[in-house]
């Protein structure tokens, strides 16, 4: 009886703490209930909301493909490094995450913009490096790659090296081992890393407002709407942003968690 | 012909053992736990970098120059486990090329393994749905599916009851005669190893007795 | 392994998103003060597209920040539009523009929230504006006078009003300390909080409440910093961090930048901004004509 009471109390305490944490996370959304007047679904230029959604989804999607392609091998490499070598290799990755977004935007604009050597060269090739899709994607990759790499590195490092040895003993070379064993076993961690990178890139504002005010993704469009029509123009976009940003992390987690379907 | 000498310092002792094994021959190894049996097999396989005093030669070829996945042996390690993300069947064929590239002989051999190891019923089961004994039999199939000239088995009968173990042991002898592979087999149960025509060698504190 | 499928997915994405786009689109890039966002997006942008066949790509931020972005080379727009001569002088002195033309002007007003319990007082128009601001409990919003000209102009206006009313303490009573934490918000946020009813009243340029549909009241000349007011208030000074400020001219200046990627488009746009079509749009959005204001330098 006493034991049951105690487990009951413990469960209540855990439940309470969990509920409090959830309430904390959800609390700011009460702001959506503020009476700010009728919401304007198309503040600013008509069609700007649709354009911002398109830009955010398309270009962030592209950025994520590049982040996966470039970040996965790098993260795997990092997970194999030991001691000072590891710190040496990780330092630039951490540096990219450490910069305040505004500072990063300035540095990117100065080093890649039309005033820089590289920017001039690309401009001669017809590629604009400021206020362009290219600038948008490059900025998103820069801000999210570090998050992806660090999280993916942890996912790889958490794997028992026994699996890779077993695969090698069964005649699999490095690439086959990576594709058939390492990747699938790390997929949950990799999905979490991708979610992190996606959220980071999609919500990026500080750096992108400098390097790629155009094409305006959703965060910049939020800013434009705020200056254009104030809160009634911001609220709808905010809701839309949440609706659009959430599915990918969920889908990634669900797909990754699904076991390899048995096949005869 | 396998000519090996493994020199590997351990915490309690130094493993220092030489092995010579002619094609088709068997080397049963026994000894108390912690005597260095697994270290010896790991050392021959070269799972950890060879120490400078170690030497492994197969048909005159130095294994230092061969990456792990290209060395011509099948090795079932003591703590082998099934890949958790693959079902039983996929685990069993893991070392084989895709179906379309498999030779007819490979495929027939696989079918035989599947039948002798009684894997049919569990072929599509998930790796974590099978019992310990079943998992062990899947590992047998996974290890032997690639027909290579040297087979190393470390405690291959663990988790199997003695009847099943005896049956597998008999099969192993038949397969060895058919394929002609050299065999190194480690078992803490010296009695079982007497089934082989060769006297088991005993390892104690890193040296042959 | 890169197979045909993944290659075609990449190709599709790159085409779809147009990352490899070239600089062929007829666009003109304008960096302008944040308070102009509404007129640019909804008023001038569509008209520019129709009349000049140019796509307006604006960048709305604080004018001083933009001036520094331009002179550092971080951004390279075609045209720069700012309010008050200050930011423009930075660009002119650094040699990034040769001449700035006045295109419009605005005036200082007091915007108020329709949700406020003081809204009726403002609306009735029977109580003097300064009496309402003095009411206890009124939540006033303004921008940071150290970084934003509007914040400085508002403080200068309060002091000038104090002199006129013979109440030397007036400005301090209303605004409190120069950096009053309870009143100071970023520019865009002041208006947002007013809309949300978190502030009762705020300093604003007339164009801001007009664009947002917020109610506001006029201030008497020369406190509204209207035409000629900088002479009438020439004696006013605000000292902040060792610098001395005078009331600004609430004039919008536009300048073609010397490093503009599309200087011809920028010049066409600037001329168009001075023509009646553009001026009537500006007027509709709460801007006054810049008559009497001189070009810089």
The chain-level mean pLDDT of chain C equals 87
Contiguous helical run count of chain B = 6
Strand order of the largest sheet of chain C: 2-1-3-11-4
Low-confidence segments of chain C, given as residue ranges, are 20-25
Which chains have the largest interface? A-C, 43 and 46 residues
Order of adjacent strands in the largest pleated sheet of chain B: 6-7-8-3-9-10
Task: Explain the overall architecture.
Chain A is mainly alpha-helical and 264 residues long. Chain A contains 13 helices and no strands. Chain A has a single domain, classed as MetI-like (MetI-like fold). Chain A is flat, with a radius of gyration of 23 Å. Residues 260-264 of chain A have low confidence and may be disordered. In chain B, strand 9 and strand 10 (207-208) form a beta hairpin. The mean pLDDT of chain B is 92. Chain B contains six helices and ten strands; from the N terminus they run E-E-E-H-E-E-E-H-H-H-E-H-E-H-E-E. Chain B has 209 residues and is α/β, with parallel strands linked by helices. Chain C has 297 residues and is an alpha/beta fold. Chain C has two domains: 26-106 and 250-284, Periplasmic binding protein-like II (D-Maltodextrin-Binding Protein, domain 2), CATH 3.40.190.10; 108-245, Periplasmic binding protein-like II (D-Maltodextrin-Binding Protein, domain 2, 3-Layer(aba) Sandwich). Chain C is 41% helix and 19% strand. In chain C, the strands form three sheets. Chain C has a five-stranded mixed beta sheet, with helices on both faces. Chain C has a four-stranded mixed beta sheet with strand order 6-7-5-8. A two-stranded antiparallel ribbon of chain C has the order 9-10. In chain C, strand 9 (238-240) and strand 10 (243-245) form a beta hairpin. In chain C, helix 3 runs parallel beside helix 4. The longest helix of chain C has 17 residues, at 149-165. Chain C is globular. The termini of chain C are far apart. Residues 20-25 of chain C have low confidence and may be disordered. Classes of the chains: A mainly alpha (264), B alpha/beta (209), C alpha/beta (297). The A-C interface holds A 34-37, 44-45, 48, 58-59, 61-62, 65, 106, 109-110, 113-115, 123, 126-128, 130-134, 137, 179, 209-210, 213-214, 223-224, 226-232, 234 and C 1, 9-10, 13-14, 16-23, 29, 34-35, 37-38, 41-42, 45-46, 57-61, 69, 72-76, 115, 188, 191-192, 194-197, 211-214, 261.
